[in-house]
Amino acid sequence: MTAAAAVLVAVALVILPGRVGAVRRLRRLHDPAYRDSSPLQALPARTDALGVASALDLLAACLRAGLPTARAAAAVAAEAPEPLASALSRASDLLMLGADPASAWAQATAGVADDSVTALARMARRSARSGTGLATAVAELAERRRGELEDAAAARAERAGVLIGGPLGLCFLPAFLCLGIVPVVLGLAGRVLDGGLL
């Protein structure tokens, strides 16, 4: 009796999470209070990481073409994802008004927590102080950002493979034991016991 109860509890634990999700979805369809509160509205906006790398590539191309930093930043800000677009726009506005490049980039990126934006501002300030070209550094930043994204995607794929292995093992191991090992052992045991070898 206790084995049957344990099996029923195990089946309920497997089925219950799907049932609860289905009930919530059905309730969301029929109840106006649930319909208005979409879970997608509560999610924070994510930065388009590949868009940031592409915008940095575009900025490097504009700088290589000979555009001044202010005009290049303004041209790229129109298509760049946030928070890079607002930082480029603010830096462009400040630079066009005649602000010192180091202070313009510092003010434009104040309060921005994105690593690519702060790295770009650091490179722009260094370039303004030393007089070195900014295009090569920005292109390298875009390539580094793309490499980081590839590494992160590869790590997620490897982790998914490891996480999938556990449930697959739990599904196939009992089947392998029941359909592969147990019949062979029972067949051998029957021959050994019937043949009088023991």
Automatic annotation (TrEMBL):
Regions crossing the membrane: 172-193
Bilayer topology: Multi-pass membrane protein
Signal peptide (residue range): none
Ranges of residues in domain Type II secretion system protein GspF: 56-178
One Pfam family matching this protein: T2SSF
Compartment(s) of residence: Cell membrane
Primary localization: membrane
Key words of the record: Cell membrane, Membrane, Transmembrane, Transmembrane helix
Keyword Metal-binding tagged: no
InterPro entries associated with the record: T2SS_GspF_dom
Name of the molecule in the record: Type II secretion system F family protein
Lineage of the organism: Bacteria, Bacillati, Actinomycetota, Actinomycetes, Mycobacteriales
